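Hey team,

Filing this mostly as a record. A colleague (T.K.) asked me to run one chain through the structure pipeline before their review meeting, and I want the input and output archived in the tracker in case anyone asks later how it was produced. No errors, nothing strange. Just documentation.

Input sequence:
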Amino acid sequence: MKNITLFLIIILTSCQSATLVPSEGIVDLSLNEAKEIQLENEKIKLTLTKIMDSRCPEDATCVRAGEAIASFTFDNQSFDLCIGPDCNLATTVNFKTINGITIKLIEVNPLPKTTNGDMAKSVVVKVEN
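Output structure:
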């Protein structure tokens, strides 16, 4: 009986379920994480593939403020979104619309510090259709 219960627990927890996006459409993504997001009338899969963060650390003085660029894959398309004061110098923007679905980069966490260079990064995006 214990084996059957354990087997059922493993099966049920291994199933990937869609993340239901709240009405404001805010989604957290970790690096190399693919999330299935249930929108009003469709389910989409969004993957965060890379983060390049060149923003000036909070505890440093820099010549330029920098930017953070997050790379995503959605609907068989790869694209970059940028956030930060120097994004106007980059060729990327902070939102992308594909097939009527808009993905907007809200933040990249954590903010850089001179002591946290190896910390895992994550992003917050807004998804809406």
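Quick notes for T.K.: Residues 2-14 form the longest helix (13 residues). Confidence is low (pLDDT under 50) at residues 3-18.
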